[in-house]
Specification:
This protein has about 650 residues and is an alpha/beta fold. It contains 19 helices and 33 strands. Bound molecules: 5'-O-[(S)-ethoxy(hydroxy)phosphoryl]adenosine (WTA). The site of 5'-O-[(S)-ethoxy(hydroxy)phosphoryl]adenosine has 22 residues, from helix 10, strand 22, strand 27 and strand 28.
Length: about 650
């Protein structure tokens, strides 16, 4: 039995669940014993949710790369760790065995050491979806540097903010990235981000697209040169080695920026041991992974889903992770299905927005593909509507594949609420039951815990699980106020949730000012700040509205006082501004120019009203008597799109 802690029956799920809640220390010690430790822990768990201070496996030492790579070499060093499918289907697939991955990660570790990167340093990684991105991430972990991956769609300004917040001193990037028919000039974006930056010492550039780049003397280096040099250092008499740095269980593994309801994105910090155990445990149980299976997670490694279910989950399980460079619709809308067919994918984990978009292209793209290798399907990132669920089940799973609807967040490190594929019951549009270790509670606005079934409220988690956020980088107080202050002794998720008559959980969406656009988290405040940067904009208010493909679209109400010759041109300019400040993913779908915003006498914008109007409501706007100027609402409704 390769994974002694893989749950195989519903009864076993209930038993394990009970154990995990009643005696978490004994439960997790048994699982943690299956990993490689340089030194075992003194205490499995101690925590309080008030500061918060959370420690898993305190006193232990380990290196996550020994668990993700070295421990698999003796038994299956020649098995594929990563199968890489390029953006361009004509280009060669790359298969990276565990032996090869080991060598490359040792090389990166040596290269970073040569360049002066030390344990605890923050290394920013801004690359396309190439295997070198995985090597970079794991190379950092090998030497104890903290990686912070930034999604390739973020703008120079966003990167600059993140570099500053993380006080990053090294960057690994590519000349460019291929995504569909586009070539994104990553290095040139980095150059812009670095204007005025005094902290970054070295920028390592991997050649992917052969886009011309400007290399700054003394700062910029080619990955290929540095890796070649490192290769000679790590290989002696045909044996490859680079010692894995002994790390404390609670040392940070990575920082990943994510949007909240206020201010700039915050750097979510995960620490090594707990995150490792959680990514591994959830991967093995939710997807019921079997050795040799090909797992295809379609996320980008710039998001938490890619961290946990392309890199750390599958590799810690000794599995095969398929990494795809491109997008679902290029060269055509059959690309995912072609990849499944070509690489005999067994598990496909994707987002509802992708499913809805591919549904729209019709079945012609699915028809001639052999999808018989598929065993399990997964959904993540936003609520999946029943129509998409059934289409996915019927046309992709051919009625034979369980679908796991996995609810979780950047802050939770791994999947929290989900059915276990084929083991616990599934229910369309329901994440269903909590994983062992997860104790969800629903609370009303006053913080009262709602007992029993058939209730809905704000979703909180009552007990520490191994993957819980430890801090927000450089600002622990922000972590406390964001997640642990709303309700005493509870972690607050920001999501609304329903518990049905059978005790299944159904996530209803964010209850704060965070939007979920195509599965990407975007704060309304961030978009407003970006819009307000455009000269002529006096004020703006941004809300979400239901969107057929994206789940949510962005609706911006803008007070514009500058003169504009043509409204459409001004709108284009505003979109440009948002692209520049945040990135194209945050561009509003609709912009409406308004003369005023509905505000209370104390100056607070009534978003409830704006949301209703964005949803197309014209009459049932609710009580507007507390508004400073109720007439404004009439005007906004008239101009609504
Ligand atoms: C939403 C992505 C419904 C939710 C892993 C959460 C979901 C936010 C689901 C986190 C799901 C994620 N059903 N909603 N299965 N999965 N969400 O941090 O609102 O990018 O709070 O993490 O996505 O987004 P994040």
């Amino acid at each position: 039995m390769p994974y002694p802690y893989q749950i195989k029956t519903l009864e076993q799920y209930h038993e394990e669940y009970k154990k995990s809640i009643e005696n978490p220390e004994a439960f997790w010690a048994e699982i943690a014993n299956q990993f490689v430790w340089q030194k075992k822990w003194d205490k499995v768990l101690s925590y309080n949710f008030t500061e918060p201070k959370i420690e898993w496996f305190a006193g232990a030492q380990l290196n996550i790369t020994e668990n993700c790579i070295d421990r698999h070499l003796a038994t299956h060093g020649e098995e594929p760790a990563i199968i890489w499918e390029p953006n361009n289907p004509e280009e060669r697939t790359r298969i990276i065995t565990y032996n090869r991955l080991h060598k490359r990660v040792c090389q990166v570790a040596q290269m970073l050491t040569n360049l002066g990167v030390k344990k605890g340093d923050r290394v920013c990684i801004y690359m396309g979806m190439v295997p070198e991105l995985a090597y970079a991430v794991l190379g950092c972990a090998r030497i104890g540097a903290i990686h912070s991956v930034i999604f390739g769609g973020f703008s120079a300004q966003s990167i600059a903010d993140r570099l500053e917040d993380a006080q990053a001193t090294f960057i690994i990037t590519c000349d460019g990235a291929e995504r569909g028919s586009k070539n994104i000039p990553l290095k040139s974006v980095i150059d812009d981000a670095l204007i005025g930056n005094k902290l970054v010492k070295k920028v390592i550039v991997y050649t992917r697209t052969r886009t011309p780049v400007a290399m700054l003397k003394g700062r910029d280096l080619w990955w290929e040169d540095e890796m070649d040099y490192a290769e000679h250092q790590i290989e002696k008499n045909g044996v490859v080695s680079f010692p894995a740095e002994p790390m404390n269980a609670e040392d940070p593994l990575f920082i990943l920026y994510t949007s909240g309801s206020t201010g700039k994105p915050k750097g979510v910090v995960h620490s090594i041991a707990g995150y490792m155990v959680w990514a591994n445990y959830t991967f093995i149980n939710v997807f019921q992974y079997q050795p040799g299976q090909v797992h295809f997670c379609t996320a980008d490694i710039g998001w938490i889903t890619g961290h946990s279910y392309i890199i750390y989950g599958p590799l810690s399980a000794g599995g095969t992770s398929l990494m795809y460079e491109g997008i679902p619709t290029w060269p055509d809308a059959g690309r995912f299905w072609e990849i499944v067919d070509k690489h005999k994918v067994n598990i496909l984990y994707t987002a509802p927005t992708a499913i809805r978009s591919l549904m729209g292209f019709g079945l012609d793209y699915v028809k001639n593909k052999d999808l018989s290798s598929l065993k399990i399907l997964g959904s993540v990132g936003e609520p999946i509507n029943e129509e998409a669920w059934h289409w996915f089940s019927q046309h992709i799973g051919k009625g034979n594949c369980p679908i796991v609807d996995t609810w979780w967040q950047t802050e939770t490190g791994g999947i929290m609420i989900s059915n276990l594929a084929g083991v616990t019951p599934q229910k369309p549009a329901h994440a269903t039951l909590p994983l062992p270790g997860v104790l969800p509670v629903l609370v009303d606005e006053n913080g009262n815990i709602l007992e029993g079934n058939g209730v809905s409220g704000n979703l909180c988690i009552k007990q520490a699980w191994p993957g819980v956020i430890r801090t927000t980088y450089g600002d622990h107080e922000r972590c406390r106020t964001n997640y642990f202050a709303a309700y005493p002794n509870l972690y607050f998720t920001g999501d609304g949730c329903l518990r049905d008559a059978e005790g299944n959980y159904r996530i209803t969406g964010r209850v704060d000012d965070v939007l979920n656009v195509s599965g990407h988290r975007i704060g309304t405040a961030e978009v407003e700040n970006a819009i307000n940067m455009h000269s002529g904009v006096v004020e703006s208010a941004v809300v979400g509205y239901p969107h057929d493909i994206k789940g949510q679209g962005i609706y911006a109400y803008v007070i514009f006082e500058g003169s504009h010759h043509e409204e459409n041109l001004t709108k284009q300019d505003i979109l440009q501004t948002v692209s520049r400040v945040i990135g194209a993913i945050a561009k509003p779908d609709k912009i409406q120019f308004v003369s005023g915003l509905p505000k209370t006498r104390s100056g607070k914008i009534m978003r409830r009203i704006l949301r209703k109007i964005a949803e197309g409501e014209t009459s049932n706007i609710g009580d507007i008597s507390t508004l400073l100027d109720p007439a404004v609402v009439e005007d906004i409704i008239k101009g609504a799109q």
